[in-house]
Amino acid sequence: MANDLAEFCHNFKDMFICHRKDNSTTAHQYLCGLFQADRSNMERMEEKVADSDYESLQQFISNSPWNARSVMNRVAEESDKLIGGTGMTG
């Protein structure tokens, strides 16, 4: 499962590069934290995810300029492909 998650994150790497700063590693750590931590808060994520730290995770969620709508749209498109949908419109 870890390899699948890493591949999934790699496919979205371009969505987390903002103003020459690559936030994709922190995005991957945050996603791992959501899966691994008993509670979805930065303190618990930092405890469970190797090489992560509270401040980086908090900065990623609070102030990083990545576009959440674009990420959600891509997730929807990829999900649609996987389940054999007819494609998104609009």
List the helices and strands and how they pair.
Layout: H1 2-10, E1 17-18, E2 21-22, H2 24-36, H3 42-48, H4 54-62, H5 68-83
Antiparallel strand pairs: 1-2
Task: Summarize this entry quickly.
With 90 residues, this protein is mostly helical. It is built from five helices and two strands.
Radius of gyration: 14 Å
- State the helix count: 5
Fraction of residues in β-strands: under 5%
Helix content: 55-70%
The quaternary structure here is single chain
Largest sheet, spatial ordering of strands: 1-2
Distance between the termini: 33 Å
Could you say which overall geometry the principal axes of the C-alpha atoms support? globular
Mean pLDDT: 88
Low-pLDDT ranges:
none
Description:
By secondary structure, the chain is mainly alpha-helical. It is 60% helix and 4% strand. The chain is built from 5 helices and 2 strands. It has helices at 2-10, 24-36, 42-48, 54-62, 68-83, and strands spanning 17-18, 21-22. It has a two-stranded antiparallel ribbon with strand order 1-2. It is globular. The model has no long low-confidence stretch (mean pLDDT 88).
